[in-house]
């Protein structure tokens, strides 16, 4: 009798395990279907040139709590996004077509601690930057991996509180905007530092300063405080966002202002900006602020959906 009950119990366990496997397989299949549908919708929206869709985001993805303090973003060679936390050197790899976090890895043992404010990609190299101008150079890692790095200190923290970094292959340099300028006489202007690559102890640093008046032709900002920067792959222009002012700016490498427009109120904390490899999609990341962190995709160049009356 006892053995009969054991046999029944074993059969029940096997049946339960099989049912759980079926449930997990069904859930995984449903998720794949949903993600494929997301990608199909995004592709269709990107191809649609009607006025209605031209004024709306292509996609708006809500990020998991682990990315609530998302800061800078950048695009890898295959179109995936890299994003980082602002207090720990943890890098997330995201599929922007489907709004899915593919993996996370760490720079250094369990992720270095610091005030991380920007990330950019230069070929296979990735640069992570702190607000005081410390740069960490590394390569993409596997899921949950801890990757080795090289560290370079620009020793410019007294001159500038950096926020954002972009790679300019034309000049083989990193472009780093100041959120807060420490140099006397320039506090209301927009200032970019240019750091020649490869990095070494003998750093070559130059500055590009753009008077605030150049950005005030249509909008009377008293100042602009950039929170990230990217480079358009086709025009070579620099595109910046400024979270405090909810502004988006485009400038040429020599400092000519192409556009300076306000972002919509939906962007409560625009901490990151990137542009797709084909140059047709603008990507903005928002840190959690009265809501979850998000990534939003728009057509480039920006249409009226980005405008907000002053």
Could you characterize what this model shows?
- Helix content is 16%, strand content 38%.
- The protein is of the alpha+beta class.
- It has a five-stranded mixed sheet with strand order 2-3-4-5-9, with no helix packed on it.
- Strand 16 and strand 17 form a beta hairpin.
Query: Segments where pLDDT lies below 50 for 5+ residues?
Result: 1-12, 49-54
Task: Specify the structural class.
Answer: alpha+beta
Strands in their spatial order, largest beta sheet = 2-3-4-5-9
Q: Rough shape?
A: globular
Average pLDDT over all residues: 86
Describe the biggest sheet? 5 strands, mixed
Name the beta content range.
35-45%
> What is the CA-atom radius of gyration, in angstroms?
23 Å
Distance between the termini: 83 Å
One letter per element, helices H and strands E, the order comes to HHEEEEEEEEEEEEEEEEEEEEEE
Number of strands: 22
* Percent range of helical residues: 10-25%
The count of helical stretches stands at 2
Brief rundown of the structure:
With 310 residues, this protein is of the alpha+beta class.
Topology:
Elements: H1 2-47, H2 51-54, E1 59-62, E2 70-75, E3 81-85, E4 90-95, E5 100-107, E6 116-122, E7 125-130, E8 134-138, E9 146-147, E10 150-153, E11 160-162, E12 166-168, E13 173-181, E14 190-196, E15 205-210, E16 228-231, E17 238-242, E18 247-251, E19 257-262, E20 270-275, E21 281-286, E22 294-299
Parallel strand pairs: 5-9
Antiparallel strand pairs: 1-22, 2-3, 3-4, 4-5, 6-7, 7-8, 8-10, 11-13, 12-13, 13-14, 14-15, 16-17, 17-18, 18-19, 20-21, 21-22
